[in-house]
Amino acid sequence: MHLPLLFLGALSAAVAVAVGGARAHVLANRLAPARLTMLEVGMRYHLAHATAMILVALMLAHLHHPLIPAAGWGFALGTLLFPGLLYIYAFTGHASLLKLSAIGGVLFVLSWVGLALGIVLNGPVSAAG
Fold first, then answer.
1. Which long-range contacts (CB under 8 A, 24 or more apart) does 92-96 make?
2. Which end of the chain has fewer beta carbons closer than 10 Å to its terminal beta carbon, N or C?
C-alpha cells in the first residue's frame, strides 16, 4: 500500500464532494450556466480520479510494477490540471487556462493505459497475495 497516494486520493475525494455541495447549494444561482457545467464536469472527473488514486494505492499492496504507482501519481497531476483548471474557470470566468486542461485529460488517458500495462506486466499474483 502507498500511504501518501492513499491520503491524497481520500483528500481529493473530499474536495470533489465539497465542490459538488457548493455547486448545488451555493453556486447554482450565482454562476452562469456554462460555468456551472464546467464545474459539474470537473467534479465528475475529480471524484472518479480521486477514487482511482485510492484504488491504485490499495493495489500496491499486491502489485509492484513501477507503472502502477506512476499511474496513481499521473491521476493526481491530471486532477490538478483537468478538474483544477475547470474549477478556476468556473470560479473566475477566466477561460485562458482552459486550453491547458487538455494536458490533464491526456495525463488521465496515459495513466489508465499505464495502469493497465503495469497490471499485465506485473505478472501472475498468487492467491495468497
1. 93/32, 93/35
2. C
Whether residue 128 is predicted with pLDDT greater than 70 in this model: the reply is: no
* Inter-CA distances, 120 with 16, 44, 62, 89, Å: 30, 28, 13, 38
The burial class, CB within 10 Å (0-12 / 13-18 / 19+), for 82 is buried
Q: Which amino acid is at 87?
A: Y
| pLDDT 10s digits, 18-48 | 999 999 999 989 999 999 999 999 999 999 9
